Amino acid sequence: MNQQELKSRTKKFAIQTILILRTFPKTKETDIISYQLIKAASSVAANYRACCRAKSKADFINKLKIVEEEADECCFWLEIIQELYNENKAEFNNILNEAKELTAIFTSAGKTAREK
After folding, report:
1. d(CA 68, CA 47)
2. pLDDT class of 59 with cuts at 50, 70, 90
3. How far apart are alpha carbons 111 and 89 in whole angstroms?
4. Contact status, residue 107 vs residue 68, Cβ threshold 8 Å
5. What's the CATH number where 65 sits?
6. Cα–Cα distances in Å, from 61 out to 46, 114, 116?
C-alpha cells in the first residue's frame, strides 16, 4: 500500500467512524465516548498526513508513533462500545477490524523505520 492509499484509507476510517457514531442513542456516556473516539479516529488521519510531510527520519518516527497510539486508542473506545451495547453489527465490526489493522500497520511501519 502506498502513501496516498494509506492517506485515503485513514481518512475513510475517520469518516466511517463518525457516521456509525451518529446511529447511537444520545446519552451523556455516548456523547463522551463518541467525542473521544472521533478525536482519536480523526487524529489517525490527520497525523498520518503530517507524518508524510516529516522533515527528518526522527520527525517521521515520532509522528508515526502518535498515529499508532491514536489507532490503538480507537480500538479501545470501539471495544468499550462493543461491550456496553453488545454491538456486533457487520458495519461496526468492520470499523473495529479496520482500527486493529491500522494499528498493526503503523506498529509494523514504526518498527521498520526504527531499524533502518
Report:
1. 10
2. very high
3. 33
4. yes
5. 1.20.1440.60
6. 15, 7, 11
pTM: 0.92
Distance, CA of 48 to CA of 50 (rounded, Å): 5
Q: How many CB atoms lie under 10 A from the CB of residue 96?
A: 19
Whether 77 contacts 37, CB under 8 Å:
yes
Q: How far is CA 114 from CA 17, 75, 86, 109, 110, in A?
A: 30, 24, 39, 9, 6
Cell of 116: 533502518
pLDDT in tens, 70-91: 999 999 999 999 988 877 788 8
Query: For residue 25, which phi and psi values (nearest 5 degrees)?
Result: -65, 150
Largest CA distance in the chain: 47
Parent domain of 40: 3-20+28-115
Number of domains in the chain: 1
Torsion from C-alpha of 66, 71, 76, 81, nearest 10 degrees: 140
Closest CA to 17 of 95, 102, 81, 79: 95
